[in-house]
Every structure is written in C-alpha cells, then in structure tokens.
From TrEMBL:
InterPro entries from the UniProt entry: SAM-dependent_MTases_sf
Protein name: Class I SAM-dependent methyltransferase
Amino acid sequence: MSAPHPSRTLERLRRRVLAPFFDRLGYDLVPAAPDWSHRPTSPREVELLLRFAAESLERDLASSGIATALDVHAATRQFWALIPTAPVRQRRGGSGFNGALQLYVAMRALAPATVIESGVFRGLTTWVIRQACPDATIHCHDPDLSNLHYRDPRAHYSTADWSTADWSRLDPAKTVAFFDDHVSQARRVVEARCLGLNRLLFDDDAAGHRIHAHGGPAHPTIAMIETLRDASRHAAAEPIRWQRNGRSFEQAIDDPLAREAAAGIAHAHAFDDLHRATGYSPARLTYVSVHPPVPTASGRAA
C-alpha cells in the first residue's frame, strides 16, 4: 500500500502557480507525503539500508541495557514491510520513518504488557506500538484528541494528563511509559519514579546546544539534565539560552526539578538518529531506566 499521489493537473498547478505564490509569502508548499513513501526499491540498496539500521539498533539496545532475545534484523525487515500500511500520513510533526522504527524495535525488545503513551498527536506512534505489542494494554493521554487520524479500538484514551490518572492497579515491572508530550522531561522522570516505573522512552531529547533546531521541545530534556548537573557545580555558570522563531528561551542552571530527576535516573541512552543508516530525517529517541523510589516515613514513595 503506498501513499496516494496527486493528479498530474494538481501537481502542475502546485509547481507553477501555488508554490511560487507561497514562496513569495515565505512559505514552502510541498506534498503532504510521509518520508517513508520515498524508498529504495533495488534489492541491494534495500538490504544495505536494513542492515545498517539493524546494526545501529542492536548497538543501541545493548548500550541501553535492554536485555532481549529479539532478532533485530528480522524486526527491522518486518517494520519495512509494515510502515507503508500506516494509517497516518504525516509530513510535518510527529514521527518519521526513523523515529517509528526505533519505537517499534524498542517496544518489541521491552515487550510490555502495558504502555502509557503521553502525547498522541495524530496517532502514528499508537499504531506503531500496537504493531509491536499486539496484546498490550495501551493508555493514550493527550489534551487534544481532535487531531487523531488513527484511533486504536482497544486503547484507552483520555484528555487528562497521565499523571492525574489512577494507576493503583498498574504493574510497574510490566509497564513502559513513552513521552512525546512537550512537557518537562525532568518532571516526567520524577512522576514516573514516584509510581515505580523504571522503563521510560522519550522523544525529542535535544541537547542544549541543539535544542534551538527543534520545534517546541520540553525542557530540561534528558540530555540537558546531565549538563545542568555538571554546570551547577560552577557558581559562574550561565543558564542555557536559545532563540527560535523570534522567541527567547532560557533554562536555569539551578533547577530543583532537574536535580531531582538526575538523582532518579539510573541510566540514560540516546539512540543514534539513524540518518546515516537510512537517509531519513533524524530521530531523537532516548531510553531511561530509573532508580526505585525511596520510601518516606509515611510509607509513600518519594
């Protein structure tokens, strides 16, 4: 199954009339085709792409400390066959081929019984999670579900923040939380740790010197938390500052939430972006394992 193509008449109109008009206004008018609709078709090139991607993913799983018997090469081939059937055809925002592949392989390797997804957008990642974990219970949280192009018939949807839900029946050992919600990643680590969740996946984990290139990223990100921890030891250290679309942003060095998150993180590994392996847009997936929560005098986790 491939993405629908515009008619020749519409494509000619786009190139000759509409595109030049929008160009004068400072906008690009491009077909709304997902990046995976562009792909090699000769067997040798397909084999090279899949082999390079699988080898990179194997290294990332090992570096993340994820013990698995998953045949990553076979899983990568399965994803290559699956992704053209995706019901979500997004070009702007959301995950592209690389991000979806990483999520698919990571979920296959982690094999959770329950997945908490915070940040759903059009539903592509929900579809990817379902393909990877067909029997999992999926909880989808997003403040605006009106953008959905795919709604999983067996998932549980809510517009409330995931942290406000009742998770008293949750088995943390069999759960993976995936955050792509543009909320402080430090906050999400602290919230997850309080619930005893120790297997977390984050999208849009940008380092401080690269965060300006990402649209609306949460901060501090996982990558920034380590930088902030080191910088806080120096009294003269400046905040992390950047500009995007004419707006100025700042992340304070002495951030109590970042310090709390840093203390809770047992290990964090940012996956390779896969661009060199596949040629598709870089992905930004990070796996985080978390220390068990520390019980307080009242018996509650802290």
